[in-house]
Amino acid sequence: MTGGSLAIVGLGPGPAKWLAPEASAALEAASDIVGYQPYLDRIPQRPGQQRHGSDNRVEIRRARDAVAMAAQGGRVAVVSGGDPGVFAMAAAVFEAIEAGEPAWRALDITVVPGISAMQAAAARLGAPLGHDFCAISLSDNLKPWDIVQRRLRAAAEADFVIALFNPASKARPETIHLAFKLLRGCKAATTPVAFARAIGREDERIVLITLGDAEPSIADMSTLVLIGSSETRFIERPGGPPWLLTPRTYGAGR
Amino acid sequence: MTGGSLAIVGLGPGPAKWLAPEASAALEAASDIVGYQPYLDRIPQRPGQQRHGSDNRVEIRRARDAVAMAAQGGRVAVVSGGDPGVFAMAAAVFEAIEAGEPAWRALDITVVPGISAMQAAAARLGAPLGHDFCAISLSDNLKPWDIVQRRLRAAAEADFVIALFNPASKARPETIHLAFKLLRGCKAATTPVAFARAIGREDERIVLITLGDAEPSIADMSTLVLIGSSETRFIERPGGPPWLLTPRTYGAGR
Q: Which of A91, A106, A238 sits opposite B106 (nearest CB)?
């Protein structure tokens, strides 16, 4: 084994304005770029650089391939949308290392953080994450429904703002409906909800609504769903949709 | 009122490699930069640009000043460390707007997201945020202790990874100790804990430990504290501190 390296790079939500300089530099320096094909398509092709595109369903195989390439001396970049640390490739890579060859633990590995979809959505909406919050992935196959249920209940009990990642799934389309049904049972119908789809990209779409009126089936896999705390509110304004605010102080009016 | 604008800009954790291009552009275009003095000190001084530094304790006054300057036609940038949307200036600005002059709602306002301390810490540590997590600020004066307590209990019950922001306070130094005492009562003593201080800056310091052995008084206001879920674990490696992993799949071994 020679001195290969592996960078796990966050591409952010899409536009170049949100790509950190460290990420640009890692992409430029790479001999091999590994990732889900639509993410690779966002990156300028550089001469001499190999690309290894794959289907999104084989995260762990992609992670193993990337580590193995680095172990053979490559300067490998494996890319994620958003932040690789949040429900993304960083965990897949370290799972592959944990289960893989002992020599892999000696590799030079860097995680390059990126702006997550949650942050891009929050920025576009105003300040919905100004106070305590939680992030829950509804991705299928990664956890049993009873743990999702337990977490949604606890999040409501704690009065966290709730960010739902991966709200839609072909295999389990009912999950988001079950999640909304549960939350409607323990949070006010007037709670603000935002569906923030493909923020920063051409097909961006935002729907602001209340928990009582929300139609969860509008969420697809490019949508980040934000559900307010009891303090989250709309600020109406002329000439645009309302801003969404969760104030820094809790219980000020009580 | 003329056409002023206000950008609420995230500077990230410190180093230029984590400053998004949109943030650089907003700082360059500003006629006035408003912020906590140590954050202003990170930004190159440009000719003709006015700086308005202040003490950290007057967030809401700073927010009001920035909005008022924009209302008078300035191209104002108000800066935050990390992500302005996460426990930072975005909420303060929208609180100021909500309580302020009606004309302020017609202003051109942009939130420019940044890499948060939580993400920088996660990137340095491995993949601790690979699964569901919550973020709780222990900042004093912003919420009663009973809501912090309720949230910590709910976070333990939900088995979230827990990120604690602003863990130390001169006014209430006991808060972090109370938080650890509570968590020790409801989580395993072997739960991995990381104290990640000033990540990316010269005085960066990381302490990896378990919940049972942690000494919470080492956390200062530049420290992000991460407390694992029941699935979070260390991956030992030669020549460096262990990586921290929370796998994407929950309950795989049960």
A: A238
